[in-house]
Amino acid sequence: MIRIAPSVLSADMAHLADDVAKVVDGGADWLHVDVMDGQFVPNLTFGAGMISALRKLTDIPLDVHLMVKEPENYIERFADAGASVFTFHAEATDHVQRHLDSVKKAGMQAGLALNPATPLNCIEEVVNDLDLVLIMSVNPGFGGQSYIPAATGKIMRARRILDQYGSSAPLEVDGGISRNTIADAYSAGADTFVAGSAIYGAADPAAEIPELRRCCLAEV
Ligand code: DX5
Ligand code: ZN
């Protein structure tokens, strides 16, 4: 399974509908939406209004990545707006397990994201509550950063934990994914790949999606 999730953070906001159509035409599996609050990360982006707008543009799942403090405050609003996956950071709240449960009760898939320096143990403690694990391969906040090589080993260890517990949760990687890095993450066991600048910075964003899939398989 190779799931490609283009990040609209790198799209042209003045031509958002066109930029969404391009990646949907290219076979994007999910659309990744980066929500930032200017506190958990030093950047400010979208709210629930953006989710509603995107929901009207496409039927593919909206993979919402909340880089916000106290993400629990947004569960109902994002569910109402049409989010499919609601992924929040383990570092951003005190009651991870409770909020994973609330996300599912609100009708969304519950994902947990870990910053590069955050150890994997918290995944193990809540493995049965997880619908998705997101390994950050950059420090979150901005598109266009370089893949941190240590993420590859962390993906391998996360893969082992999921397999050990019989979890079929997608293992997603986010940050610096491109033709040059996707094969490492794929070989390590990731199955879901966020790509912002690699897709929207390409001359033909639609064609970049099959190209990224090809790069995964080329090195195996
Ligand atoms: C970074 C965001 C990413 C970002 C990835 O904080 O979480 O989703 O859009 O952008 P690239 O693919 O350019 O690293
Ligand atoms: Zn993201």
Task: Explain the overall architecture.
The protein is of the alpha/beta class. The chain contains nine helices and eight strands. The protein has helices at 16-25, 48-57, 75-81, 96-105, 121-125, 150-164, 182-188, 197-200, 205-218; strands spanning 3-6, 31-36, 62-67, 85-89, 109-114, 132-136, 171-174, 192-195. The protein has an eight-stranded parallel beta sheet with strand order 1-8-7-6-5-4-3-2. Helix 2 links the parallel strand 2 (31-36) and strand 3. The longest helix has 15 residues, at 150-164. The protein is globular, with a radius of gyration of 16 Å. Zinc ion is lined by residues 7, 32, 34, 65, 174, 194. The site of zinc ion has 6 residues, from strand 2.
* Dominant shape: globular
Strand-residue proportion: 15-25%
- Rounded mean pLDDT score: 97
Rg on CA atoms, Å: 16 Å
Give the ligands present.
D-xylitol-5-phosphate, zinc ion
Q: Tell me the number of strands.
A: 8
**Helicity, in percent?**
25-40%
